[in-house]
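Tutorial, part two.
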Amino acid sequence: MSIKHSMVKNRGFSLLEILVSVVVLAIGLLGIAGLQAVGLKSNQSAYMRTQAASQITSILDRMRANNATTASYLANNYNIDLTATPSGDSVAAQDLLAWKNELAVLLPGGDGAVLCDASDICTVTIGWTDLQADGSRADRFFSMTSQL
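Running the prediction step on this input gives:
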């Protein structure tokens, strides 16, 4: 009788064992969910940097496509500060206006600046507000220098 009694006693899982395994599984799933959230925020930040790089090449291509791109024309017509609004009817003013509007749509708080010198070297800077992994916001800037 004692052999039969011990076999019956050791059959199946106890409620305590199941409870411990559920707690361990829940902790693991919470960790995975946290990693997923951080990964999504990092992915969004990388997307913003990619958009900034794309928009820098966009304005440089517009400047190259403008037939009147001499050094003095670039320095006199394409130079613009981050907070400035382009005005005028020239091709350069229309390029800058369209570019700044695209920045405002594609990047949160997006704005851009162009600085060209007399030797056809132009530095384009784009700024935007980025959401950090901890939920805070930070101003980000991306610059590229190119000779046209």
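The CA atoms of residues 46 and 128 lie 13 Å apart. In part three we will examine how such features are distributed along the chain.
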